[in-house]
Amino acid sequence: MLKKLLYVSLLGAALLVSGCSGTDSKEIKIGGNLEMTGNTASYGQSMANGIKLAFKEVNAAGGVLGKQISFIVADNKSEPSESANAVTKLVTQDKVALVLGAGASSNTLAGAQIAADNKVPFITPFSTNPKVTVDNGKVNEYAFRTCFIDPFQGTVMASFAADTLKAKTAAVYIDNSSDYSKGLAQFFEESFTKKGGQIISKEAYLQKDQDFKATLTKIKAANPDVVFVPGYYEEAGKIIKQARELGITVPIIGGDGWDSTKLADIAGAEALTNTFFSNHYAADDKSPRIAKFIEAYKAEYGQIPDAPAVLGYDAAYMAVDAIKRANSADPVKIKDAIAQIKDLELVTGKITLDENHNPVKSAVVIEMKDGKQTYKTTINP
Questions:
Q1: pLDDT at residue 19 greater than cutoff 80
Q2: What residue ranges define each of the domains in the chain, with the CATH number in brackets?
Q3: What is the pTM of this model?
Q4: Distance between CA atoms of residues 283 and 281, nearest Å
Q5: In the list 50, 183, 241, 310, which could disulfide-bond 150, CB 3.0-4.6 Å?
Q6: Where are the alpha helices (DSSP H) in 212-368?
């Protein structure tokens, strides 16, 4: 009886250890903390599509380390509190080796410490707030990203406003409920004023607001050369539509949060004339790597991929590359391998992670024409 009890005890311990590794005899588990519903659902759904396409390709080619990848999605419902719950579920119940997501910076920040406390790395495809990887001067060793960060993105749009649009004055319309929006606004203001520009109006709104005309009337009265709206597509689209209805005809510019196939539906194609935003790639770029990805994505989903989709795809391949080089599905070993990524060729370009776990890469500026995205220019780091 004692021998049987000892055997059962040892077997249970072995199963517990294997259950914590993110792998079993047949699969490697990778989690997705994604906005599948809620006001930024377009991001999560696109990222999920890109990630699933990447893993489908990897599994069809034999998997990684001789195992198939199992992708487990937890819906964070576009809410920080739900994002924390999603990460907790993925790392404690599903025992994933790595987490991909979230999209919005607020949602990623909400789960960052939970992942670190459980020693499980995460790669966010789309969260650009600097605090995701570095907070109070300390690098989160388990946090990584595929996208550029807000200081660079803010500088890109400030330079575009001043140098290309020749703007001397700007209004800034901030989403006060978003870490992403507030951070991007800060860096735009700093860079624009350094270039000799002047911020002559600052207004704020909250996510899920519907009527923006009172504050837009104030912005119109200030008569800026350009309006900077660093928000997400749902509110940005409504702001642009209502701004044009009020007779605001100056350029309206924003960040990568605008990128959604729903933007034109919300704002209307005509209202989007003379609008621009920074982004991670241009769908009309004819380079072979982008053309190949777009062809595969269209074959799988019947639509042109947006930036969250391509960044999700790239994040999935970053994960696969790290697992291969770690030669293990152990989360800590994967974390160390991600930190060493250098000159990895992805759809959005060649990526090397810096000491703060941020990729060094270029940004593009997209112009909306007839409701469609068109490449305008590239801004290098």
A1: no
A2: 2-148+288-362 (3.40.50.2300), 150-279 (3.40.50.2300)
A3: 0.83
A4: 7
A5: 183
A6: 213-222, 233-245, 263-267, 288-301, 307-326, 331-339
